Amino acid sequence: MTGGTSGLDDLDELYESIILDHYRNPRHTEPLEHPDVDVEANNPFCGDEIHIQLELDGDTVTGVSVSGRGCAISQSSASLLSEMLEDKNAADALEFVTLVRRMMRGDTLTEEEKDILGDVAALEGVKRFPVRIKCALLSWTALEDSLVNRAGT
């Protein structure tokens, strides 16, 4: 006899696979020579550290570097962020951050919003572990702060 979650178990495995892949093989880790944005963030509660560098052409991200150390959630989230940023403008990146925050809060997302998230949706399961949400949002918060501060200068 099988349980009523046949599709959900497969989805959890897919999401876990995406998170582990990004943790083991982080994307965009090479430092940039001339970053326009250079921000570091940490979560003193658990020791996660993130370093984000961006090269911009006007308002469009043309280069990204994300590195750090910490748990699989924080590091895979940062790697997922780095893929999302490619060729995005600052406004689109900030909208994406808002969407990730909504997902972490447990807000109901439309199918279109889920499509926009792409692989980042793999982090959705983190919301079941409130203490880990800060790990997942560390890089997104750092990105948001750096872009908002840059726009304000």
Explain what the structure shows.
This protein has 153 residues and is an alpha+beta fold. It has a single domain, classed as Sufe protein. Chain: A (Alpha-Beta Complex). 51% of the residues lie in helices and 18% in strands. The protein contains five helices and three strands. The chain has a three-stranded antiparallel beta sheet, with helices on one face. Helix 2 packs parallel to helix 5 and helix 3 packs antiparallel against helix 5. It starts with 5 loop residues before the first helix and ends with a helix.
Quick tags:
globular; 51% helix; single chain; alpha+beta; 153 residues
Give helix % range: 40-55%
Class computed from helices, strands and strand pairing: alpha+beta
Proportion of strand residues: 15-25%
Return the CATH class: Alpha Beta
Average pLDDT works out at 90
CATH architecture descriptor: Alpha-Beta Complex
- How many strand units? 3
